[in-house]
Amino acid sequence: MPETRPPIELRGLNLAELQRMIDQRRLPPVDQWNPERCGHSEMRIARDGTWFHRGSPIRRPAMVRLFSTILRREADGRHMLVTPIEKLEIDVDSTAFRAVEMSSEGEGRNRTIAFRLDSGDAVILGPNHPLAIVPGPSPRILVRNGLEAELTRPVYYELAELALAEEHDPPGIWSKGAFFPLDVEA
Question: Which of 11, 99, 123, 130 falls 20 to 30 Å from 148 in CA-CA distance?
């Protein structure tokens, strides 16, 4: 089944339009599939977001987008590609996705922040998609099914600039009514 969904672009969209686009996307219910047939996919997602199969990069963005829709993270931390008939492990060097672009509307407690992911999807920072700074430091946003997106360095710096300009103590950022500190979790 070919991937027919175009990647989401943040430019030119207000966040209400973006939320409608996100809500209209239908992802496979991988959280409900538990096939017995298991194995390894011979695939890997590198730290920079490049997907590999048997050591060779997957060069077709539509193929990567398709695989990203059937990805989930197990309770034990393993990443799996899941279909109704099989579940295949995939090695992930850091996180499954990268947040490569940011858009912000509003200020302070009324701010809403969205991120475009390298998979062609987008996520809006808030209670259902929280931000955490894990040791490293590695800023990450929860995407879905246990999967995270690491913020690229330029995106994190843009986020940090907003947080520093608002002078919260501790430094942090508001989005969709939730506050996210920009310090490493204890």
Answer: 11
Are 2 and 66 a contacting pair, CB within 8 Å? yes
CB burial of residue 113 (10 Å; 0-12, 13-18, 19+): buried
DSSP 75-99: TTS-EEEE-SS-EEEEEESS-SEEE
d(CA 68, CA 49): 11
Q: Omega before 28 cis (within 30°)?
A: no
Task: For residue range 24-67, list pLDDT tens digits in order.
Answer: 777 889 999 999 889 999 999 999 999 999 999 999 988 999 99
Beta carbons of 71 and 63 less than 8 angstroms apart: no
3-state secondary structure of 129: strand
Helices and strands (DSSP H and E) totals, the chain: 3, 14
Tens of pLDDT along 140-164? 999 998 999 999 999 999 999 999 9
pLDDT band at 176 (very low <50, low <70, confident <90, very high): very high
More confident site: 97 or 15: 97
